């Protein structure tokens, strides 16, 4: 072996795997945060339903609370189940 | 003895009483039993039967006092100028004491007869007094002093005052006095003491008889002296002399005058010696400041301080001077360590002048402000066009301090330097520009593991936080969080490998950053390459691991930021070289062969970015690879340098940082600052409108400026633009009634 990698430090960024950029409830981008949070990141994650729609977790929680007892996805009106 | 009123022979009793009174007034010995008996005499006269004799007694006492005083007056007025003070003083002291004893002797008369018929203060103020106040009877002590005042001082005042004034003048000229100091003071104080029985305006007599003339004489004296002094002394000598003179005068006040007068007299002296020559002193400021004559400036400060607004010209001189010095210190800096020079020169200037301000001007806040204003204008001055702006330079300075290097500074030293750096940083107007550049530098340091120490990084961020608040550093904090998260990810990843019985040949670590939180340049876009198997495999494992633990996230690799350590065994010595990943990729291609054509290299790496030679150049420069041709073309042959040698066996190959790329990055930073500012301004406008609901245009602009002062100095056109943007977005609307007003739309 003429050359050998002794150590390697890779750099990558993560972002949400989403089909559209903005949360359907608050209309804020997913890479930003919901209106109730100050900073984006681990504390303000995105959540998916089985209907494949996704929202900020805080937005969704608030929405579901308002919808009780019939919990629907705000986009397709199917029963909301966390994926 | 009985207290019952009885018939009294006035003449007999009064005769007895008057002898005692005379004795008391002359301070002759009075036997104790005689003295005690007098009290009962006064009592019995006051309550005499069938009619009180108090009125008569009062008149007699008044007459007696009047005679006594007239007698004394004759004695004193006969004296010559040299002895008049001493004689007056002796008699006054005697009379003063005697009068007080008499007052207590006649206390029954005072309380029972005189006080009762007096008008109270309220009567005097609000009642309709028909009787003249002066006709009222006075208490005996007061009466005595009143007689002294009316029948002695008023007659003799011209002579007395003349002698007193000449005494004070003699003292100013350091000549001998005609009377000892305590006598002079005693005489002066007699003008005050004689009014002591009055409840208010005790000083009226003193002021009218003596003080007025004294002040007049003082003014004349110092007017003459200042003119004489100015003719023979230089301004700086003059100032020293004036300060000494003022100090003497202060002592003199304490020596001769009642406290109420001190301030007035000193003020008079100050007016004559300083205030009247202010134009001359102000004219001197420029010269003194330019020469930095510390003592003279300190004197100037002392002299000008008491006069309102007199310091202003001096303050502005100092401010201008510091500004010039500051500009000179950073003028024409260039070269590698320009940033270091910039900050350290400024710090030196700052330290010097804050020291001087403390020394010369007693930390007067006016001068501290001048120092701050001067530095603000130095730090924010627009230098020549190609010269980077101060926030950029300061950020660079921090970077050089925090980056691993061979400067050999201890952590404590670096920390001190950073603390000082904050002093300069506080003057920066465009703090957001600094933040932008600082975060870029920080990102590079973190990703390339070039920080001297994490503790230092942390402490610097805390310093910035305390200077600018939490919001300013939150982005920097998020970068730190990502680093610690990545560390734990790496640990979990190695456990994951163990659990799945996978193994890697290389020591593999990953930094996973949150997209958007890091200021990573856009220059990486449009660049990708084929990874060799050695790297592809661990990356795939990692992706698998990552997706298993985080659902719904996608990873984007930033290979232009990753780096590796290569062990090179093709030379006689083994070298361990740190290089960015595209260099690693190129080097790995030479595993099987010693030389390759450029076109083959391009083919194998699948670099999509044009200018492949740009990536190759650093390797050629470092002589790890060699080429046969001078110009790189597709047919150039690149080969390993088998004879490579280097003194150090562990080193790093720098990234290809082309100049225009650097400039691009700077431009990108500036434009992103611009974007951030727009967002910030819009947020500020919405915040303000939300609380105010209705605001006039000018008020709104003012408020926005004051809110964003901590971060940057916004330009009014930009604020207008943001207002228009918000009008378009219908966050706010123009008010119907007033075109100049905006309304918040909920």
UniProtKB/TrEMBL annotation, chain A:
Belongs to the RING-box family. The lineage of its organism: Eukaryota, Metazoa, Ecdysozoa, Arthropoda, Crustacea. Keywords: Cell cycle, Cell division, Metal-binding, Mitosis, Ubl conjugation pathway, Zinc, Zinc-finger. One of its GO terms (biological process) is cell division. InterPro entries: RING-box_E3_Ubiquitin_Ligase, RING-H2_APC11, Znf_RING, Znf_RING/FYVE/PHD. It comes from the Eukaryota. Residues 34-77 form the RING-type domain. SUPFAM superfamilies: RING/U-box. PANTHER family: RING BOX (PTHR11210). PROSITE patterns: ZF_RING_2. One of its GO terms (molecular function) is cullin family protein binding. This is Anaphase-promoting complex subunit 11. Gene3D superfamilies: Zinc/RING finger domain, C3HC4 (zinc finger). One of its GO terms (cellular component) is anaphase-promoting complex.
TrEMBL record, chain B:
GO terms for molecular function: ubiquitin protein ligase binding. Belongs to the cullin family. The keyword Ribosomal protein does not apply. Pathway: Protein modification; protein ubiquitination. The lineage of its organism: Eukaryota, Metazoa, Ecdysozoa, Arthropoda, Crustacea. Coiled coil: none annotated. SUPFAM superfamilies: Cullin homology domain (SSF75632), Cullin repeat-like (SSF74788), Winged helix' DNA-binding domain (SSF46785). It is found in: Nucleus. It comes from Hyalella azteca. This is Cullin-2. PROSITE patterns: CULLIN_1, CULLIN_2. Keywords: Acetylation, Isopeptide bond, Nucleus, Phosphoprotein, Ubl conjugation, Ubl conjugation pathway. The gene is LOC108665858. Residues 389-620 form the Cullin family profile domain. Pfam families: Cullin, Cullin_AB, Cullin_Nedd8. GO terms for cellular component: Cul2-RING ubiquitin ligase complex; nuclear lumen. PANTHER family: CULLIN (PTHR11932). GO terms for biological process: ubiquitin-dependent protein catabolic process.
């Amino acid at each position: 072996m003429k050359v050998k990698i002794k150590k390697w430090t890779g750099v990558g960024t993560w972002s949400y795997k989403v089909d559209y950029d903005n949360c359907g409830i608050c209309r804020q981008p997913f890479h930003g945060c919901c209106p109730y949070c100050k900073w984006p990141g681990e504390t303000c994650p995105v959540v998916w339903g089985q209907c494949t729609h996704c929202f900020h977790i805080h937005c969704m929680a608030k929405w579901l609370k308002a919808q009780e007892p019939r919990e629907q996805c705000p986009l397709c009106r199917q029963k909301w189940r966390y994926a | 003895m009985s207290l019952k009123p009885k018939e009294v022979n006035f003449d007999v009793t009064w005769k007895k009483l008057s002898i005692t009174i005379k004795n008391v007034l002359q301070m002759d010995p009075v036997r104790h039993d005689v003295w005690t008996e007098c009290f009962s005499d006064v009592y019995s006269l006051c309550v005499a039967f069938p009619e009180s004799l108090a009125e008569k007694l009062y008149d007699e006492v008044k007459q007696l006092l009047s005679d006594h005083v007239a007698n004394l007056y004759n004695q004193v007025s006969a004296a010559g100028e040299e002895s008049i003070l001493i004689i007056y003083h002796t008699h006054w002291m005697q009379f003063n004491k005697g009068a007080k004893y008499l007052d207590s002797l006649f206390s029954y008369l005072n309380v029972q007869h005189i006080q009762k018929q007096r008008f109270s203060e309220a009567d005097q103020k609000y009642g309709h007094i028909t009787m003249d106040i002066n006709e009222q009877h006075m208490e005996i002590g007061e009466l005595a002093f009143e007689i002294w005042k009316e029948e002695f001082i008023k007659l003799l005042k011209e002579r007395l005052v003349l002698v007193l004034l000449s005494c004070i003048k003699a003292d100013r000229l350091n000549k001998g006095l005609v009377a000892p100091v305590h006598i002079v003071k005693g005489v002066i104080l007699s003008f005050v003491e004689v009014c002591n029985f009055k409840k208010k305006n005790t000083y009226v007599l003193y002021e009218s008889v003596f003080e007025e003339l004294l002040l007049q004489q003082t003014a004349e004296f110092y007017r003459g002296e200042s003119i004489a002094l100015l003719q023979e002394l230089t301004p700086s000598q003059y100032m020293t002399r004036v300060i000494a003179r003022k100090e003497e005068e202060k002592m003199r006040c304490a020596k001769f005058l009642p406290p109420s007068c001190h301030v007035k007299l000193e003020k008079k002296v100050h007016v004559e010696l300083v205030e009247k020559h202010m134009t001359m002193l102000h004219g001197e400021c420029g010269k003194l400041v330019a020469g930095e004559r510390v003592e003279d400036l300190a004197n100037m400060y002392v002299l000008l301080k008491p006069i309102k607004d007199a310091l202003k010209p001096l303050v502005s001189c100092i401010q201008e001077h510091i500004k010039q010095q500051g500009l000179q210190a950073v003028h024409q800096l260039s070269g590698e360590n320009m940033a270091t020079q910039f900050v350290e020169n400024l710090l030196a200037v700052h330290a010097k002048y804050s020291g001087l301000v403390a020394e010369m001007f007693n930390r007067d806040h006016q001068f501290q402000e001048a120092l701050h204003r001067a530095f603000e204008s130095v730090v924010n001055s627009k230098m020549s066009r190609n010269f980077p702006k101060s926030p950029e330079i300061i950020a660079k300075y921090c970077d050089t301090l925090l980056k691993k290097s061979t400067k050999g500074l201890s952590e404590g030293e670096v920390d001190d330097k950073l603390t000082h750096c904050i002093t300069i940083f506080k003057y920066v107007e465009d703090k957001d520009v600094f933040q932008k550049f600082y975060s870029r530098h920080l990102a590079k340091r973190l990703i390339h593991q070039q920080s001297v120490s994490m503790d230092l990084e942390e402490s610097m961020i805390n310093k910035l936080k305390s200077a600018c608040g939490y919001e300013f550093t939150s982005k920097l904090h998020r970068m730190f969080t990502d680093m610690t998260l990545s560390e734990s990810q790496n640990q979990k990843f190695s456990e994951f490998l163990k659990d799945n019985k996978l193994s890697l040949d290389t020591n593999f670590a990953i930094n996973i950053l949150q997209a958007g939180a890091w200021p990573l340049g856009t220059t990486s876009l449009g660049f990708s390459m084929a990874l060799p198997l050695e790297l592809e495999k661990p990356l795939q494992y990692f992706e698998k691991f990552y997706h298993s633990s985080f659902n719904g996230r996608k990873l984007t690799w930033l290979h232009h930021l990753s780096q590796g350590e290569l062990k090179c065994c093709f030379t006689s010595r083994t070298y361990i070289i740190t290089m960015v990943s595209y260099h690693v990729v190129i080097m790995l291609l030479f595993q099987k062969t010693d030389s390759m054509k450029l076109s083959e290299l391009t083919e194998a790496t699948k670099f999509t970015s044009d200018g492949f030679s740009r990536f190759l150049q650093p390797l050629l420069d470092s002589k790890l690879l060699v080429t046969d041709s001078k110009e790189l073309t597709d047919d150039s042959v690149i080969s390993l340098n088998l004879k490579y040698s280097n003194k150090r066996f562990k080193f790093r190959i720098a990234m290809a940082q082309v100049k225009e790329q650097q400039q691009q990055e700077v431009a990108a930073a500036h434009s992103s600052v611009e974007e951030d500012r727009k967002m910030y301004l819009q947020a500020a406008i919405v915040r303000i409108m939300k609380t105010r609901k209705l605001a006039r245009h000018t008020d709104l602009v003012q408020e926005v400026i004051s809110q964003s002062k901590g971060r940057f100095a916004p330009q009014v056109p930009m604020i207008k633009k943001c207002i228009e943007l918000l009008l378009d977005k219908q966050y706010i609307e123009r008010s119907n009634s007033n075109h100049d007003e905006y309304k918040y739309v909920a």
